[in-house]
Every structure is written in structure tokens, then in C-alpha cells.
Write a structure and sequence with these properties.
- Strand 11, helix 9 and strand 12 form a beta-alpha-beta unit.
- The strands form seven sheets. Strands 5-6-4-11-12-3-15 form a seven-stranded parallel β-sheet, sandwiched between helices. A six-stranded parallel β-sheet has the order 16-23-22-19-21-20, sandwiched between helices.
- It contains 26 helices and 24 strands.
- The longest helix has 23 residues.
- The protein is α/β, with parallel strands linked by helices.
Amino acid sequence: MSLAGHEWPIQNFLEQFSDSLCTTTADQLTPRYNAEILARAQPTLQRFKRPLLPAQANIAAALAHAFTFAPNAICAAEMSTGKSCMGGAVSALVKSTRTLILCPPHLVGKWKIELQTLMPGVTACILRSITDINDFAKIQPSGPWPLFGILSREKAKLGYAKRVAMVPKIRRKHDEDYVTYVCPQCHTPVRNEDGLPLTPRTLKADDRCRSCDSVLWTFDPDGPRRIALADFIGDQHPTLFDLLIADESQENKARASAQALAFALLLSKCRRGLALTGTLSSGKATSLFHLLWRMNPAIRSSFKISDEARWVDLFGTWETRTTDVDTQRVLMTGKESKRRVHVTVRERPGISPHLIPYLIGNTAFFQLRDLGMSLPPYHEHVGECLMSPELVANYQRLKDAAKNLIPKGRSRRDGHLVSSIIQALLAYPDRAWRGEEITDKDGVVRFQLDPLPEEILLPKEQDLVSRVLEQRNRGRRVLVYCTHTQTKDITKRLASILSKAGLRVAILPSSVKPEHRMEWIDKQTHQGLDALIANPKSVATGLDLVDFPTIIWMETEYSTYVVRQASRRSYRIPQKLPVEVYFLLYKGTVQEHAWALVAAGINSSLQTEGDVGAEGLNEYQQPDDMMTQLISQVLDSHSTILSAETMFAKLATTYQQQAPEPIEAPELPPTAELYDHVPEPIPIPTLPTPSPRKSKSTMDETQLTLFAA
């Protein structure tokens, strides 16, 4: 920032004026929740079979009170803080007659158990069919508790038969026709997580466009018809439920996904809505837009559902990238041509403080340390491995090839070639025994590496065996995460290597349905298990894996949502052992840079949730998106690889802040309940109109080519 013509770091400014800033903020923001409100909630809280912890009671009472001035509320609570218990308590405090729980399929049974444990004699029914809904509607309310209907989001969005919506695009080259499939919305080629083209044969039910997040399936009029239970509730029982509780609501952040639309429909049919999430934001402004648009009348009255770009103008950050296509051709071939410039604009992580007042008004933020309990330590470590001489030689060949192929791919707008190179740089050291092959969008092989002998253990594999053996000797089971479990699968090799070392290993197959995964894992554990290998996305939400106090990440995961959720699977309230999480990487490779960006992204998302660490505001504007950063790091021969160890150390600083003293409710006489009415309409505040926030730095891709030269 600039003061009196001089540049002054924002950190110095905050340190100098922190006291006055805090005083001004306290004067302008008056808390809506206080200890008297908690005291008025005590008659209901004291009837619970399993009493809430003091901090949980505060959050439940505050959320219930939020409904007196807003129709919807959000609980952004860290994993294992007891969101289901607090959600059930909110339902009781607002005296809901019938409450609908919308949750992932593997949490349906868990929700029923939690509610029955919290409230003695409560009626909690799992809604699997139209018959179940009709039978639930016939139950007459009785007793002190609401009636709870628990609905899987998969059942809620279940609809008509679908067919592939991808559009075939035929191109003729060298007298042959090539067919590629593009997204029906943005018309970009459709590819999987490894950058490979998708076809109707390889497209999966949950695959989406990686450019615009649009669905790739559409209604099939010739297929069997199945009614979505959310639609049935909306049509046949539009006034049945008083309160909707949406668990893991970060998965409803999309604009037009089936589950997001089901959530929006059910929210519109209930008088009140409560969203529960452990990871509210990914660090980008658009990760909050559609959730807040559906839950906040002020935002809904000022924005259309399609106003993502305007939202980023006001509350986010843009990055402008300039590609000088023909200058690149001059540099690569020495031929002159007429200059053409291609400019693209994309969102980058960063959320404006202007958004905060529209978030904190009806959102409760809650961290595990706020429970005031004596929890075991939680530590994250970066395990740096050195590549063998053979790996070093092959990796250098791959990196040299990348410096030549990336500029060519970008000048030809061959996104498949560019993404394939980055994926190879990330994944090759972990699967060198399979070799490497890089193709362009036409399927032409551009680079190849011969495989190393399969009988040779790679350094990271040796490190994994040593760590699992050490953990077994300490009486600790290990959860091993592998992100590539399809075309670049390494899980079977890892299981074989660990088994040969005398360890008992199991792989969680994708064929196990979500609702049966916890049962499957418990069965394997009871039969004797030293290590469980799984895709982190398969266990990221809702599962309590306290039997695995040690977690090892073997491969990089891009999503900050998944990394945050999956890393906390064993750090739950019942856990008695210290939890250790290891991120294994090869030193000096793109893997190190990628993990550093993930750590920076987690730091960024924590700021939105009010968790500001020592490096908070300095780290808030994280670097460019991961793909851009990795490309820059590969091409720039003078670049410095981000230290993953340093970035995770900063993240640890955020995690290990001092826990506040628990709030104790004063002994006040019970008064009438505050939550037995629907709130009166409140004035819609006027949204701010700050100048659009653009990124100060503009990337000229000609410079990347110069680095490669």
C-alpha cells in the first residue's frame, strides 16, 4: 500500500495500527449473540441425553438465534467438531416440527445414530423412496423433539435416465478424420484428471467439464424414468419440513449440478435452512458465490445466478495473461510473421474483505481447538526423498523435453499436450517402472521414456516401507493416500511391496458403495491390518478413521478441499493417539512445488474462515493457479522451487494457535424460548460497488519461451 507517496508493507501497517483498527472494528460491529441468549436456550439443551460441550452449546444457540433475523444460516466448523450434534440441537432449539437432513449417502446411518444418541426417544427415519416419504408425512408429531427425515443427496437428485451430452467434433488432418468430444456449454475438449480425452465409452457418471464444471449428461427420453426424491418432496409435500440441514454443503457449490439444484429446491421449500461444512472456501471468490446466492437474500436480490464474473469483479481477483503467439514462433524458428496477441482472463485465489460482512452476519465459524478439550497433538511433516541416479537422469530428460514442448503446445493451443507434460512431471517419479509417453491432442507421441526395471524399489517406495514398518512397531496403523487409481494406478504395486515386507495391506476399491465404506474398512481392520491404501476422495468426508493415526500422502492432490478433509480423517474427538500426517515428495521436482502451492491454498482458504495465522495476510493472495505456477517453474531455468517444508511449517503455525477459554453461561432464570417464530422480513442491505480488483501482475508468455531458450 502507499502512504504519502511512500510504499509501506501491509504487515507493517497492521502492526503499527492494530490497536486502533481493533477498537474501530469493535465499535462498528455489535455482536448479535450473547450469554443471555445461551441461558435462555438451557432448558432445551439440558434435556439432551448426551450433553453438548460448552463450546458446541454456544454455537448451537447462536445459530438458532440467527434465524430470528435471517431465514438461513451457515455453520463452518472444522472436521470432528460435532456438526451433526450441533445441527440436531439447532433443530430442537427452533422447535422445528419436521426437519429434513440432506447428506452424503455414506453418512445417512451415522446421522440417525447421532440423533438417537443426542435426543432420547427421537424419531429419525431414513427416506429411501416415495413410500418412505409418504409414510413419514403420516407420522403425527409427539414428544419434545422434532421428527427427522434423513435423505441421501444421491436419492434426492435421482432422476430420469441420462445419456452423454458431449458434442462430437470432427477434424480432418492428413486425409484422416479425428473425433474429439467437447463440452456442450463451453465447447472445450473434455478430458479426465490425467488430461486424457474422454469418450462416451470412458465417461463416468460423475465426470464434469474441467473448464466450466458443466454436467456432461442429459435427459434420455427413451430410458427408464425415475423420480428424484427432491422433486417429489417439492411437488407433493412442499410444506412438510420446517428446517433443512444440508451436511457437507461445500459439495453444493456448483451452479447447475444435480445435487446443487436438489439442494436449492429443498431449501426453497423449507422455512429455514442450515448449511454445515468443514471447508467453506477453496480460496477463490466463486467457491462461495452459488452457496451464498442461494442462502442470502441480500446477495440474491443483487446478483443473477449467472453473475460469477461480476461477483469476482467485486469480491475476487482476476489474472490477465497475454500470449504473443507469433513472437513465440519467431523465437522458436527464426522466421518473421505478423504479430498477434492473445489475451485471456481467469480468476485467481483471493477474496475481498468487502464480502466478510455478508458472510459473518449468519455464519458461525468453529475450530476444533475451540472445544477446550485436551486433544492429542496433530502434526504435518514433509518427507523429502532424493531420486536415484537413474531417476535423476530420466527426470532431467523429461524436464528438457517439457521446456521444448510446452511453448509449442501453448502456441498451438494444445491443452492436452501441456497438461500431459505437467502430469508426467508430477507422476513419473512415482511410476518410473511403467515408463512415460506424452502425446498431443491428435494422439501423436511427442516424447517417450523407457521403463526402469520393475524389481527395483524407487526411493519413495523404500521410504514408505520404512515408515509403515516403524509405525507398526509403535502399534500404529497407517492410511496411505494415492490420487491416481485409474490409468496411472500405483496402488497394486504399493500393496505388493508392503506385503513382501511382511505387512498386512488392503486397498479400498472404488466398487464399494459410499454407504458401505466405513463397514468395509472396519471389517478389514478387525481382521488385522497394518496399512490401508485408498483414494483420498473416497474417504474425505464423514468417515471416522481413528484406527489410523498415521496418514501418508504418496501423490499430490490438487484440491484444497480434499487435502484438508482427508488429512483430518483420524483427528477426531475419540482419538487418543498423536496424529501424524506425512506428505512424501521427491526433492527438487515439480512435486515439491505443487505441494507448496497446496499448502499456500489451504492458508488462503483459512483466512475466509477467520483463522488467521502468523503469516496470514502476507500469504492471503496466493500465487497463480497451480497449473500456471508449475509451467512457470518448469520453463524458468532460474526459478526457485517453493519449499513445501517451509509452506507446511507456516500452515502448522496456523493450526497451533492458542485455544481460547471456554465461555460459561451465567446462571439466569429461564425465560420464554426465542426461536418459535418465523423471522420478519429484514431490509436488504445495499451491496458495495468497489472498483474491480484486478491482478497487478500480467504474465507475458513470451518470457516463458525466453526462459526455455
